């Protein structure tokens, strides 16, 4: 099953608490952020598809999906499984890649050198695959694996005997959303690799421009294509439109290249592509809040003053997160966790926390603060909100549970994840067929393989988490929950007490 992101845009009631009075629980401020960072990056090795390298650290995983792409006579091996299933969805994978790269760009200097290397390895595992998806003219491969068949099985990726259907979009059919996000991912990754591997960086940037051209020339949502829709929906349909991905891709290309042409694109297309929409959401399907923050850097530094409306939208988004702001309308659980109705909640928490820290840095570097109508908010306040979210995730919550697998003494044992819940092929060499895995899914026993570093969907609005494998909205990890958390944790490694 999948944890989709697109939820109604709503004004939720917020607890009448000042930020400083949000509940604090045992062990607050004593977390080992460096350990958590290491594990958050390690998680991605458990999601790998393809031929695994000799230095694979999660040794219960093995090779899988080695024939991916054969129906198109092309190599589509590699990349990541998005969550607890065995499908490679291009849309969320590209967003995951963008967020990993953005984490390195903004907070790589805060990472210990070995973890920076590990983060770049995690990015490259994705970008090597994304390069394959745009390797053919006027075509983008958007998915590998039939999700309906896959979700009807409970089997290890190493045993996959389900259809590895390849979903491709050929022009003039549009795929602006996936191609635009792929352009953003490759451009951001190009920036992340600039100093360590300039040749690879150049390759990524060249293909980012190619992906963006494909996205912009043939405008439309990939999930409107009947040849694709049956495979991507309802899991990763484009619910919120493709326009934000075009601006997002252009914004990343503008930042990386400093090419005025991309700046002009943003300026000329902003209104027609809905740039002025102030949507308080950021994730694999909706880039508006992240787009506003990204462009605000240039506005704050005086490089793009004509795009002031983006900064105004970023300010507005940040003010919604301040409990004692007159414009606050983000809901918090009684325990202090940001909560948005819908699927897996921690995807919102980690992405919003990331934006809080990035925007705080942009404000600090330009000696500015945030005006939220009735109050003036400092960068420190934004960082404190993010820290409360991080500490909640790591164990400072009413359950006293870490929602990162393998961190702390009390963490989810029965996550909704096939590879983790089934015995490894090292312990059980015989294949486990599609329905033979059901006994493990239905078991009340803890998963035999610890997916170290995985962030699950998290507790409900009442702060309760029942550790139930079947409750996928709460117990399923995803790559796009972890990716922004890498940057968040890197910040707190260097700044455990924000100021």
From TrEMBL:
It is an enzyme of class 3 (hydrolase). Residues 1-28 form the signal peptide. GO terms for molecular function: cellulase activity. The keyword Isomerase does not apply. The active site is at residues 416, 467, 476. It holds the Pfam family Glyco_hydro_9. It catalyses: Endohydrolysis of (1->4)-beta-D-glucosidic linkages in cellulose, lichenin and cereal beta-D-glucans. InterPro entries: 6-hairpin_glycosidase_sf, 6hp_glycosidase-like_sf, Glyco_hydro_9, Glyco_hydro_9_Asp/Glu_AS, Glyco_hydro_9_His_AS. GO terms for biological process: cellulose catabolic process. Its EC number is 3.2.1.4. This is Endoglucanase. It comes from Prunus avium (Cherry). The lineage of its organism: Eukaryota, Viridiplantae, Streptophyta, Embryophyta, Tracheophyta.
């Amino acid at each position: 099953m999948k944890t989709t992101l697109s939820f109604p845009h709503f004004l939720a009631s917020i607890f009448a608490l000042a930020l400083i009075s949000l509940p604090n629980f045992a062990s607050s401020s004593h977390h080992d952020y460096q350990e958590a960072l290491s594990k958050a990056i390690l998680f991605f090795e458990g999601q790998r598809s393809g031929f695994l390298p000799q230095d694979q650290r999660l040794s219960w995983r093995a090779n899988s999906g080695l024939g991916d792409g054969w129906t198109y006579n092309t190599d589509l091996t590699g990349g990541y499984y998005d969550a607890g299933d065995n499908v490679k969805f291009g849309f969320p994978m590209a967003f995951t890649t963008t967020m990993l790269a953005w984490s390195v760009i903004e907070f790589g200097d805060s990472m210990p050198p070995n973890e920076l290397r590990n983060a770049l390895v995690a990015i490259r595992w994705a970008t090597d695959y994304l390069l394959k998806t745009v390797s053919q003219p006027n075509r983008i491969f958007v998915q590998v694996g039939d999700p309906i068949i896959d979700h009807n099985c409970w089997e290890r990726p190493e045993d996959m005997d389900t259809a590895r259907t390849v979903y491709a979009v050929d022009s003039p059919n549009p795929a602006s959303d996936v191609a635009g996000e792929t352009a953003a991912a490759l451009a951001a990754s190009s920036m992340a690799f600039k100093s360590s591997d300039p040749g690879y960086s150049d390759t990524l940037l060249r293909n980012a421009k190619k992906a963006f051209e494909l996205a912009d020339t043939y405008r439309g949502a990939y999930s409107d294509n009947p040849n694709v829709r049956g495979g991507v929906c309802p899991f990763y349909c484009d619910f919120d439109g493709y326009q934000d991905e075009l601006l997002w891709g252009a914004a990343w290309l503008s930042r990386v290249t400093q090419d005025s042409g991309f700046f002009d694109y943003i300026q000329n297309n902003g209104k027609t592509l809905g740039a002025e929409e102030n949507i308080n959401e950021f994730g694999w399907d909706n880039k508006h809040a992240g787009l506003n923050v990204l462009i605000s850097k240039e506005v704050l530094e005086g490089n793009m003053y004509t795009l002031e409306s983006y900064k105004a939208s970023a300010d507005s988004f940040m003010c919604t997160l301040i409990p004692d702001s007159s414009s606050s309308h983000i809901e918090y659980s009684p325990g202090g966790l940001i909560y948005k109705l819908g699927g897996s909640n921690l995807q919102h928490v980690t992405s919003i926390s990331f934006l809080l820290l990035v925007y705080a840095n942009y404000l600090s570097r330009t000696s500015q603060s945030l005006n939220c109508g009735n109050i003036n908010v400092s960068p420190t306040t934004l960082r404190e909100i993010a820290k409360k979210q991080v500490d909640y995730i790591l164990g400072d919550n009413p359950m006293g549970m870490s929602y990162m697998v393998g961190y702390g003494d009390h963490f989810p044992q029965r996550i909704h994840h096939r590879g983790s819940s089934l015995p490894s092929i090292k312990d059980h060499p015989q294949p486990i067929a599609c329905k033979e895995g059901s006994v493990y899914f239905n078991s009340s026993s803890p998963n035999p393989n610890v997916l170290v570093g995985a962030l699950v969907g998290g507790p409900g609005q009442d702060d309760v988490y029942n550790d139930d494998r079947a409750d996928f909205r709460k117990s399923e990890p995803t790559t796009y929950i972890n990716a922004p958390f890498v940057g968040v944790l890197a910040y707190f490694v260097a700044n455990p007490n924000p100021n």
